[in-house]
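The records we work with from here on pair a chain with its fold. Each token is a code from a learned vocabulary of local backbone shapes. A record is reproduced here so that you can trace the correspondence yourselves:

_____
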Amino acid sequence: MKRARVALRCAIALLLCALPGAPIPAAGAPTGDITDVTVLDRYLQGLTSLRTGFQQTVHDAHGTTVESGAGELIVQRPGRFRWDYEPNASTSTDPKLSGQLLVADGRNLWFYDRELSQVTVKPVASVLSPTPVMLLSGSVADLHAQFEVSAAKPHDGLDWVVIQPRSAEADFSHAELGFAGEQLARMIINDRLGQTVRLDFEHSQRNAPIDAAYFSFVPPAGVDVIGTPQH
């Protein structure tokens, strides 16, 4: 379970790096340090919010499935997201008492482990700054500064981009993002311990209006709270 949660953080980091606000140059245009404009760069153009369902499967280094589940990701630039995940193997019959919820409200990152009845809160800057999530409010140039981004050969009916972090301290070694036309359809994340996470996205809504209430979190009564939120 612990390794699956590390993979969860990797997935969130990569998803949120896909929300910079700067314009994307047209294919073939000068891009400074960006030598090739990929389908990922084009996908980012004008993207301000994303709401999508997902199916998640986690495999260990031997290819054995160690966890699977489903959830919803909602992102609003700048600095807000909600990741709600429920594993298929949950023993609880009440969705409110199973899985994990992460909420970034612009100042704090809340992590609610429903099964442990525990909430951890930290300032967003202290948690996200050393990770790809810092690109949430950055530019496409920032994306390429933090990652090596390259196009890969199409397969499984998707166009692919490979991302490798330039920092050796990143939790993951590389990731592959698959696009169906202009939609992000799949993400495969490989961590440094050999674990692989596959996310299949469904019912994605790009730049849809999002209620601000999704990014507000109040710890439920009776849960343990670790940390002090910033106000």
Observations:
- The CA atoms of residues 24 and 205 lie 20 Å apart.
